[in-house]
Amino acid sequence: MKLRTLLTSILAEAAIALPGFCAQARPVIVGYVFTREAPLTPGQIDARKLTRINYAFANIENGRMVEGAPVTAGNLAILTRLRRENPKLTVLISVGGWSWSGGFSDMALTPSSRAAFIDSVAAFLKRYDLDGLDVDWEYPGQPGAGNKFRPEDKQNYALLLRELRARFDSMERKMHRHLYLTIAAAATTGFLSDTEMAEVEKYVDTVNLMAYDYYMPGVEATTGNHAPLYTDPADPRGYSAERSIYEFEQAGVPAEKIVLGVPFYGHAWAGVLGINNGLFQPGRPAPEANVPYAGINSMMSQGFIRYWDKTASVPWLYSAQKQIFVSYDDPESLTLKSRYVLDHHLGGIMFWDYLSDPSGTLLNAIDAALKPRTGNDKAGKQ
Questions:
Q1: In the chain, domain spans
Q2: Which CATH class is domain 11-263+330-370?
Q3: Predicted pLDDT at 379
């Protein structure tokens, strides 16, 4: 027993001393909390089934990280108090996102501009007693939502993360705890072409792979599975989470650092004819093109029928009367994705976003599927 106690102590010290060291045997469950600038209320977030909360978003102004809204301080206070309920929970701030990535390219351009940003990050983490930073640059070397970008982003992205990691290492020695550095990554070959992932992975704890939005109303003129686990041969685009994971691994990211992103929302197309029950058919954005799972759940009683893509392992809804098609994830597909994470030794599951399913139905499915399985459990692709 004394030897076991000594080894436990050594491993605990290693978890603090080694950047990126993860002593958790179970895959992480990372939930983005995006309030759309509304205040959180105590009890709104169930911390017991989460490993990590990424609060979205902080913004970049004049090259420095700043609070994204007046409610940020109060919301972060509520979230950090959740660590009393779950001592293993970590709370990170996510900076950027689709709408607020416009300041990254200029900020990352020079050593001095990166240093000023990193100073602001360090101050932000101390001010709100946070456990790290999630960098959501959408996207290096690409315009994203009309953002400034330049070819140098490719190298500057890795330099920014390297310098952030160095500062975090220095802070850890004083704080005696690990500071996490993670990124949100687009699940596209273009993202891989415009980044140096073999270099980036050295500095980050996890790569949160946004394996969704493969099909989006208004971007694609046809319907499709927006978060397929496997590639459906009938899919003209040929995308899937499995394909993206393979490409990230080929780019140099270890499987154990890849966190599979899943959506707690769906995409809806209108004007879709009933051929193949609406799948891979022409359509236009529905009046409510982005539907939280809470809304999707209520559609079952409104004339929608649930179908299942056996190859892609995801569901969809279709109403022949309304000619509306909805692609989404549900407990069945998330159970299969969670088992995929276990079977392929990935780092865990990430989802966007917590408030899209206040019932906890989807999080409960992930939590149950990631628990150690017994001999009676039947896993695998269905």
A1: 11-263+330-370
A2: alpha beta
A3: 42
